[in-house]
Structures are given as structure tokens and as C-alpha cells.
Amino acid sequence: MGRTQRTRRLAIAVAAITCLVVAGCGGDDDGNNSNAQAQSGEMQMWERTGGNAPMVDALVAAWNAENPNRPIKLTYVQHDQMVPNLSRAIASGDVPDLMGLDLIYGPQFASLGHLEDITDLIGDDPNLATASPGHIEVATWKDRLYGVPLYADVSVLFWNKDLFREAGLDPEVPPRNLTDIHDMAKKITALGDGKYGYYLPGNCAGCNIFTFAPLIWASDKNAKIEPTGPGDEPLVGTSIKPVLEWARMMHKEGLIDPAAQAETGETFAEVFGSGKVGIMGTGNFNVALLQDQNPDLDLGVTVLPGLQTGQASSFAGGDIVTVPKGSDRVKDAVDFMKWLLTDKVQLEVYAKQLNMTTRTDLLDNKYFNANEDVRDTAKAIPLGRTPYTVKFFELINSPNGPWLQMLQRVYYTDDPIDEIIADAKEQMKAIVAQE
Amino acid sequence: MTSVSRSWRGRTKYLVGAACLALCTIMLLPLLASVLASVKSPEEAAAVPPTYVPHGLSFDSYRRLWEFQAGLPTYLTNSLVVALLTIAFALALTVPAGYALARFPIRGKELYFIFLLLALIIPYQALLTPIFLMFSDLGLTNSLVGLAIIHTAIQLPFSLYIMRYSFEAVPRELEEAAVVDGCNSWQTLIRIFLPSLLPTVVTVAIFAFITSWNEFLGALVMMNDDSSYTLPVVLALARTQTSLGGTDWGMLQAGVTISIIPCIGIYLLLQRYYVSGLLSGAVK
Amino acid sequence: MYASKRRQWVGLAYLAPAVLFVLVFTAYPFVRMVWLSLHNWSLLAEPKYVGLDNFTRAFDDDQFWTSLQFTLKYTILITPILIVGGYLVALLTAPNTLPRKLTRTIVFLPVVIGLGASSLLWYWLFSPRSGPINAALTDLGLIDKPVLWLGVDTDLSNWAVIISVVWKVLGFGMLLFVAAIQSIPAEITESAMVDGASYWQRVRRLILPLTMPTVLFVTLVSVIGSLLAFDQFFIMTAGQPHNETATSVFYVYLNSFPFLRLGYGAALSLILAVIILVFTIVQIALARRSTR
What we know:
The complex is a heterotrimer. By secondary structure, chain A is α/β, with parallel strands linked by helices. Chain A is built from 20 helices and eleven strands. Chain A has helices at 2-25, 53-66, 82-92, 106-111, 119-122, 133-138, 161-166, 178-189, 205-211, 213-219, 240-252, 268-271, 285-293, 330-340, 343-350, 366-369, 372-378, 392-397, 402-412, 417-433, and strands at residues 43-48, 72-77, 98-102, 140-141, 144-145, 147-160, 279-283, 299-302, 304-305, 312-322, 384-385. Chain B is mainly α. Chain B is built from twelve helices and no strands. The two termini of chain B are 39 Å apart. Chain C has helices at residues 4-37, 53-60, 62-93, 98-112, 115-125, 132-139, 154-182, 186-194, 199-227, 231-236, 248-256, 262-290; strands at 39-40, 48-49. Chain C has a two-stranded antiparallel sheet with strand order 1-2. The radius of gyration of chain C is 24 Å and the shape is globular. Classes of the chains: A alpha/beta, B mainly alpha, C mainly alpha. The interface between B and C is large, with 92 and 91 residues.
């Protein structure tokens, strides 16, 4: 018995020593904010995957260069794990100091009390006045502010001028309404050889809210897809049914690559670059990508239209940066936020990399003006809209949610559109009614 | 032997040979495809439709993987440390336990055995959150030791099962001889059993390594800090970092290849032990 | 000889570390999970006691039944393939000639790589536009449109995952069967040959019955593993379409993590554990009966 006791003690000693060694070499700052003073020391920041990682990396690097005594340590978290991760962090008392989230989750997190109220700390910062209204709106809850824009994405309409030429269309004239898209797409699809006039992803809820929903908003300024909260009516507006019917028609006439049905978003950004799609809704990030990977493709950028000419809209997306509740570096975090909105950062970090500025008064700058496609993309920013709801994921972004299910039924089945809309309304209302 | 049966014999030989060849091809082809994809140049890796054989060798995918976020060396080290710790813990627990169950007159021993095997039927996914909360009180979140503990818990039932039966397979005469020589239980364990059990020990170590090296969900839940991420988590992350450029298939397959290499290497080197360890423990 | 009492204490001491470990790191979380199953908890509010509500809720939950049904379908489809396929390959490679031993090694190779790595590999292979499978099928003229293997059609997704898992796991059964076949004393098979039995007669009347315990063991392990399938579906289909390929454990994951309905997830785990226990008992009973 003495022997085994000794062995066990030895094992425990080994384990303990291993712990110490590993704790020393492995994750050094385990997120415990005990060593963080008010003004110096490392700050922990989480950011979701699937967003504009290079932009966030650049911002953090720029901040760290200017603030060596309070650098930010960035960790990417799987975007669908953000909610459980943060919940666990709050439950265990071990929260990061900054958190970048997809802006559409702003209302949800704020309403659950997961975020610090920064209204007073950010005060009357003049740069806040011209920050992207879509971002600010979703970062606001009950008149209190919980975050600022981290980066902005807007959705636009691309058209492939080469394919237009090939199909006998004027390459300098973009589609101005949904009928244009249909007619032009038809001519391009007729070229054959794997070329299709249009593209709608079949298995990606986020892609569709980003590039398809604006078609609905453009056609009726009062149209609304999401229910804000319990008791609110979803899918209202005169444009819902006609735009859905238009989408079904586009599919039925074979103007969309059948492989699009499997598109989960993972290859969404490279579809246009293949040169086989004539017209497609996509985002500003695709501009840089194309100029990088397919510089020979003759690209045209315009705004997402509605049923009539002159109607246009866009999805104002991207990320906001917030401070999780329980962080003890709130003041430093807010300094970071203020820093993001300064002229220098907007121009030299955002615009220089051809990313959208998050301040609307700086859209006219030398970097954008030097690049025609980026300049055209920036025109979508004032048109941007962001859905506001506390259950965005379950309603819209979830692969099993009513938004995607509705679209899949519209795109790929023959179920009556009225019935599809009615079912989706039921499901959406049920979701916001749950607690 | 008639000529008919001789030619039948010959034909069977060809059939068998062909079947073996086909099998080997099917098993190796996907692995080969992955390795080939990982050495394509980035443009070729993203090509639609894909090429079968790379037109030129490029290690760019590996370079991108190496520099991804905190860097591949960090993630590889984390995975390796966790795997080694898992091996250590698993052996430290199952060798004595197997010894006890096989060779000692413990009252209710089968009940203990079943208790220790219980983890087999519980989906550990649901246990992760309670464990996380317990670990955060103990300061074990974001730690390689904590993750190793979880991996050990997953691996324990299977390891214990083969360990116990391997112990039982050791001839009693050996043990009795040691007793006659005046050895106590510990000395008997070290001097007599362990050498005979080397195949099983190696098997447990290999299985523990493979389980830990590839485990994904536990690592995802326990690690909130980039510098503690393990390789499977990073590969999953790399898949969803799609905003610019779409899925980086080349880098993904480079990651798959790197994941696979240690497992295959260990298997080929230690095949002797692995195979006989499995067999002696499991064929019952 | 040893005093039996002392032996017992020594034995318990050796057993203690493992028992303690399981108590702390498996049993205690399990007990907490059982407690959780009687509550509703989203991690941040206080847990709310709801009694057996979570269990009755499962019976009315469409997704619970969809997941269960899918898991059973997957298990029923893949198990015979693994057992019969593994056994045939074992028969093929049982003799200890060099080429056959080499084949055995190669067939076992996919077993040692991780399920996660394997799933990522096949996820790429099955990719509609970037994957070599569709490219090869197109080049061979067998299809003219890319097949949407994963995430669009439930049955097709099921088969795609089954293909990848069979590739990966076949060698495991094969190895155990080979061991069992090789452990049949040579005299028995030789005397059967002398009696004029053909190869397949020998297999049916002799080899199969004598290796039946191993067959049943592998079947049991395979069934349990399939009922608990998660990683491969998480990576390859993410439960799509419409959560129809979300296995039971996948649904447990969804409730425990993204949905943050921890109580419900715990209840589902328990229900699943009971189902598996029942399956296991039934299988063991059948096994006992058939080897009598």
C-alpha cells in the first residue's frame, strides 16, 4: 500500500509540474483580467471568423504599433460558437475586453445584458456623429450605445462586361431593375458553355439576406423582413411577393447555375471570378478579391435595384466592436473605439486598403477616387439598411431558420408563394415569441 | 490434381491479386489526392474544375498554413503536448486499474468495471458544458492539461477494456514465479507484467494519441485563446474564414496532410505492437 | 500465499486512481447533467426547475424524431456494409502471404487517421465544383451536371457520409476478423478440406460459426459508434438540409451549444444513452443465445 501511495504522489507531482511548465509555455494570459490595470497591459479581443479578417488584423496591428503598453491580443472564434463561447465566458467570469461581432447580433447581445453600456464613456466624440447609421442603430438598445462600427460591408450588384459584350449587350449599361436583370441574364445564359446570367446561393442564409433582401427593400421602402420582437409582424410590404415570384421565375427559366443549390457561402466569393456568371449580387470585399485574383475580368459595379428603375438598396453589414460585460478594461476599450473613428485611421487603414470607411463623411477620398470599382461600391453605403431584431440568427442566419427555408421553397419547389410566405410568417413569429 | 483445378487455382490467384490491388488503390487514392492537392500552386488549388495531378510543385499552401494566425508551430505544439499528456494520463490510470481488475480479488470488481466503462454510452458532447464550468472554477480552461484530462476521459473505457484483458492473458505461472522470488505486487507489475504487456501499452498509447490529436469539439469548447488552439480547431476555423478568397482548399488539404502524417507514421513504425495489442485485448 | 484481505486492499489501491478520475471527470459531470435535465438553463440566468418537462418535450419535438430516425437509418445502412465488407476483406487477406499482409496494412491505414481529418478530406473530395470526384465522374462521362453530394439531398448526403466512414473504418473490423479467422486451429480447416468441402462451404459451415463471437463484438461496437455519430456530420453536412442529417448527438450539440438550451440537451443525452443501453443489452442477449 505504501508503494502505490508513493506512486500516486509521484504521479500527482508529475502532473503538477507539468501544469506549471505548460502554463508557463502555453497560453500565457488566460483571459483572467486580474493583472489588467486601468491603463496598461494586454487586452483580449475576440473576433468572429468568416468576416473581414485581414481588415481586423490590420486595425489591431496599427493600434498595437501606436499603443505598445496596452496591446490587443486577437483571437478568432468560430462565428457560430460566439454566442455559447461568450455565455460560457460570462458564466465563468472570464470575459475578453473587446468583442467584434457581426453587427446584426448587436440587439440580441445588448438585450441580454451581455455588453457594457459605453454611452457615457464615449460621450460627445464628434466622429460618432457621422459613423455608419446602420451600425449605430444595431449597436443601440433602449437609447443606450453599446458599440461602434468595426468595419463595414455593403452589398452591390456586379456585372461581367466581357459576358455582356459576348451576349450582345451594351457593357456600360448595368441592369437598372429586376426586369433588366432577367432580360440580360437570359441573353447571357443563351451563350451556353456553362455560362449563366444570374446567381442566387441555395444553401446560405447570410448570403441571401446580404444580396437578395435588398431587392425586396429597394422595391418597397417600407418592406420589412424581420420581426423586431414578440408581437411584431414579419414579412410586411408590397414587394415581398413580387420579388419572390421573380426569383422563382429566374430559377425556372434556368438562368441560374443548378450547382448554386449547394452553395453554403464557402465558395460564394469566388463564383463571380470564375467568369461564368453575368450578373450577381455580392459584397464590397469581392471587389478587392477580383482585382487581386482575376484582374483581367472586366468588372462593372452598381447598386442593387428594385422592381422599378430608380429604386435601389443595400445591406449595411460588417462588424461592430463591443465590450463584454464584466471586463475591467472598459476605458481602454472605449479608447480603441474612439481611435477607430479618427480621420487618420479611417483614411490610412480603412480606405487605403480599399475597405469601406465606417464614417459616411469620408467616402469621397483620394484612395476611393483612384479606383473606379471601389468608388462605385461606396455609393451603396448611404443606401444601406440593417435588420434590427433580437433573434437574428434563429430567424435569418440559421441554416435551418425560416428565412432560408422560405427561399429554398421559392427557388426549388412549386409550392404556392402565398403559402410559403404565410408559413414563414408563422415560424418567425413563433421564434420571437420564445424566450 | 487435374488440369481443370490447376487452372481454376491460377484464375483464383489472379482474382485475389486483382481484388487486393483494387482494395489498396481505393484505400490509398483519397490520401494521395489530399497530398497532391496540398502541393499545388494556389491558383491551381482553387481551379474549377480541379486538376488531378499538380502541374508544378508549390509549397505555398504549407507556407500559408504555417503563418496562419498564431502560426502552425504553436498549434502543432499544443496538439502534441495535449496528446502526450493524454498518453501519460491514460497509461497512469489504466495500467494499475487493468492490473487490479485482472489479478486481484476485489469485491464487486465487475461493478467497478462496468462503472469505468460507462463513459462509452454517454455522448460526451453534453458533458462538455458542465465540465467547462467545473474547469473554470479549477482554472483548467484554456489549458492543455485540462484538455488532456477530457481526452483521457474519452479514451479511458476502451483503453481499460483492452488493458484488462491483456493482463488476464498473461500466464499465471509467470506471476507465481515472481511471488516465489519474493516480489511484492508493484515489483511484479513492473518486472513481469509490463514487459509482456508492451504491445498493449503501445496500443493504448497510440489510440490515446490518435483520439487526442484529432479531437475537435472539446478543444473548441475549452480553448478561448488563440494561442491555446489545437490543430483540428484551427482547420475548422480556416474553413470558415471565407470572406476574402473563398475556401482555401490547398491550405485545408495541407492541414489534413499534416494531421495525417504523425498518425500514419506512428502506425507504420509501431505496427507490430499496435496490431498484436489490439488482437490480444479484443478478441474475446 | 497472500492473505486475501490484504490482496483486496492492494487491488483497490491500484484501482483507485482510475475510479477517482472517472468519479470526478465523468460521473460528477454526468450527475450534474442529470440534474440539468430537470431544469431549463441558458447559462446566464438562474436554472429553472421544470421536472420531467424536458423529457416529455422530446416526444413532441419533431426534430428529436427526425434526428433519431436519421441516426437509425444511418446505423442500419452502414453496419451491414462494415460487417460483411470487413469480413469479406478479412477472408481475402487472412492467409499470411506478403501481398495479403501488405493489403491488410494498407486497408487499415485510414483507421489511424482522425475522423475529423477524414471528414475534411472527403468534404473536399465531394465538393461539387472543386472536388475531384465530380471532376472524375464528369470526365468519365457518367454525369453531365455536378452532383450535389452534401447538404442538399438527405439520402445522397447520407450515402456520401457512409462512403467516407466505410473507407475509414473498414480496416478495423477487418483486422479483428483476421485475428479471429487466424485463431482457428489449422487441423479443423484441413480436415474439412480433406472431407471435400469447397471454400465457401468451409466459410459458411466452419469459419463463420467459429468466429461468430468476434462478429458480434464488432457489430456491437459498430452499432454503438454509429448511434453516437457526430463529427462526420458536423463537418460534412452541418446537419443540412434542414437539420435532416443532424444525428441525435448533433441535436444534443445544437441544444447544448448554439441554442443554449442546456437542460433540454442534457435530457436528450439521457434519452440517447438509454436507447444505446437497450440496444447493447439486446445485442448481447442475442449474442449469448446464438453462441449457445
